Every structure is written in structure tokens, then in C-alpha cells.
Amino acid sequence: MAIYNIPEYRMEELEKKLAHISKKCAKYGNEFSYTKCDPFFETIKEDSLGHDFTIKLFPVNVSGTAHIDNWEFVAILEHHYNGNIIKRYNTDIEIPERFKTSPNICEHCHVKRDRLNMYVIHNTETNEWKQVGKSCLKSYTNGLSAEYVAAWMSAIELLTDAEGRLLGDIGDELSDGRCHPYYEIERILAAALAITDKYGYRKADDEPCTKNIVKSLLFNGIEQTEQLYRLDLPTENEIFSASASDTVKSIIDYYQSIENDGSEFLHNVQVILSERYCEPKNFGLLAYLPFGYKKAMEKMARERKDREDNAGYEYFGEVGKRYKNIIVTLSTLTSYETDYGVTIIYKMTDTENHVFTWKTGNYFEAGNYIAAMSVKDHKGYSGQKQTEVTRCKLESVEAAA
Predict the structure, then answer these.
(1) Residue 177: left if φ>0, alpha if ψ -120 to 50, beta else—which one?
(2) What is the pLDDT of residue 113?
(3) How many Å apart are CA 295 and CA 255, to the nearest integer?
């Protein structure tokens, strides 16, 4: 059984072909098996793009050849001036030495012409070997080989040479949308953090939006992104600094630690953050996270300050009871219109860390008063204990004197 690493965007095509091959194998009484394993990511250097990019690969285990009259496909011969490059797909059998230097002649039709590849086939009964062209290959195997299909996709399209340069046309497939790169989530968040810190968070209908700036920065680089959007971005060392990395880890930890109460947004974010890489179609969610994290931290800081500032405040009295001769300082909180006129909400404080709130239609100047009041309820607001009162009667301290 051979193992091949297939790019994500070719899996659907592969599985359709293998399903067809499986039927042929069943028809001719040949064994066949196929298993798809858990995916992994690989970073590749593509010279035509000028930078690294990451793609998702699926390891597949494939075994079985649909052959006729005992002929099986074994290898591809790639003809060169000083000999042939042999790309084997059946590693369980030795290939005769002659194929290393054999001429570019099909041993079925005996036609000599400049073919890019010749195909080595083997007869499992007679042990006969032949090299044939692609058209003649069908005469022996109908061109149906599970190893050949999988190997053509991985070995020809994705194998790298000794210098690590990608062979094939992945760059073209990236540009036309057939294949899309993946990016490390921490790098996406670091880029979004730097952009948000400098320009604020820009929504999808802003031009340019944060998501598109991040996408361009990671795919095209800082210089091209600055030219494209007329921005002045931080340097790469600043964007991906150690301090930025620490903040990014805090952002990830924060969102992963939130207990989801049914939010679809949070569910989607937590699923994405559970992986190492993200594809561009989900950049919008990640681009928002530094801004959302900053808002959450600011809110937590305000709440913490409110708790600290209001730690000494207590509720006054008992609900339902009336109290007299309480010296308070009165101020207006807010007012609003009703069907019966204007309602004013007052705030009153005493010298013993009590805060009172009172709703009335009567107007009073801010100042010090002697109050009589009934306790209606005990409530909290922004971490502060407040006593809601009713039936207040106020007498100015100056008038009482």
C-alpha cells in the first residue's frame, strides 16, 4: 500500500477517480483499498509568488490496480538527454536496468517520437516488461491505476526538488482560486492587532476594512499593502514582536476561556482558534478579535474600578420602613418624558457611604437637605449598592437652621 499526500483542493477530484477505479477493480476481480488520514499543513516556497505559503494536505493510503490480461502499471519514465528519470509507483518489484537508458520508443506500437513520459508495465504471469506511451497504456490497463492517479497528483504536482522549489503550477491555482493558502492564526491576529492599534477597527463596509488589510499584508507583504491602500504600516519586526506575540496569546486564551451561552459568533471563533491554521474566508472573524478583546479588557477594568471605588458603600435601612432627619446631598441624575409629564431621577448621598435614588415629578435645586423617606428597594448599579426610596420630603438645611 502506497501513501501519498494530496492537496485539499484535489481531494474531491481524487475521490471521484478512485471511486471509478474501485468499480473497475471489482469488475476485473482485482483488490482495491483506499484510506484518507487526518490532514496536516506544509509550508511551500513558490518562486513565482516570491514568498512562502501554507497548504493543507491529506495523506491517503491507496492500493489496487485495475488491469487487463495481467498487465499492471509500475512506473513513469521521464526521458532526458543523458538517461531516464524513473518515478516508481510500485515499490514492491525491481525494475529492469534497461529502462534507465531505454530510448523513447513505445514497445507496443513501435512508434518513436518525443514523448514527455513513457509508462513501464509488467505482466504478473509471464514477467514480461514493456515501456509504452500513454495511448497504448490503455490497451493494457485501460489507464486505470489507483497508484498512478494518486501519485500523479502528489508526486508530479507537489514533490519538491533538492532545493525545495515547488514543481508544478500551484501558483496559478492560487491565483485563480482553485487552491487557497492557509495562514498561522497567531500571525493573522498579530497583523490584525497592529492594524487595529494604529487605524482602529474597520468594518466590512469600510474601505479598506481590517480584514482585507490583514489578508493583503500576509499574502502580498507590507510594502505592497502600503502601496495598495496608501497606509503607513508598522515594520514586520514591530508587527510580529515578542510583546505582540504575548498579547496574541492573551487574546486566544480569553476567547477560548469564555463559556458559550449559545452565541454563534463565539462558537465559530472557538472552533477556529482550536486549530493552528486558518483559511482566508474566515479572516473576518479573526480580524475582529483584537478589537473585541480590547473592548472586553476596558470593560473589565471599569468594572474592577467601580468595585474598588464602591467597596465601602452599603444599603440603608430596611425595605418598607420609613426614616426621618437624614442629612443628604442631592444631585440630578437624569430625567425623561412620560404621559404624565417629566420624571426626574435624583441621587442623594449621606456621610455614612449610603447612596439613595428617588424618582419624582418635582424639581429641586442641587444642595444639602434634611430628608424623610421610605425605603422601596435595595439595588446595585455598576458595582455600587444603592437604596431606592419613595415618598421623600426634603427641607433645605439652611431653611432648617
Answers:
(1) left
(2) 81
(3) 13
Q: Helix/strand/coil (H, E, C) string of the chain?
A: CEEEEEEHHHHHHHHHHHHHHHHHHHHHCCCCEEEECCCEEEEEEECCCCEEEEEEEEEEEEECECCCCCEEEEEEEEEECCEEEEEECCCCCCCCHHHHCCCCECCCCCCECCCCEEEEEEECCCCCEEEECHHHHHHHHCCCEHHHHHHHHHHHHHCECCCCEECCCHHHHHHCCCCCCEEEHHHHHHHHHHHHHHHCCCCCCCCCCHHHHHHHHHHHCHHHHHHHHCCCCCCHHHHCCHHHHHHHHHHHHHHHHCCCCCCHHHHHHHHHHCCCEECHHHHHHHHHHHHHHHHHHHHHHHHHHHHHHCCCCCCCCCCCCEEEEEEEEEEEEEEEEECCEEEEEEEEECCCCCEEEEEECCCCCCEEEEEEEEEEEEEEECCEEEEEEEEEEEEEHHHHC
Question: The whole model's pTM is what?
Answer: 0.56
Cβ 33 vs Cβ 1: under 8 Å: yes
Contacts of 356 (CB under 8 A, 6+ apart): 316, 328, 347, 348, 349, 350, 371, 373, 386, 387, 388, 389
Distances, alpha carbon 91 to alpha carbons 33, 52, 249, in Å: 17, 32, 46
How confident is the model over 246-296, as pLDDT tens digits? 999 999 999 999 998 888 889 999 989 998 888 888 889 999 999 999 999
Residues 368-396 have a mean pLDDT of: 92
Q: What's the grid cell of residue 196?
A: 487595529
286: exposed, middle or buried (Cβ count in 10 Å: 0-12, 13-18, 19+) = buried
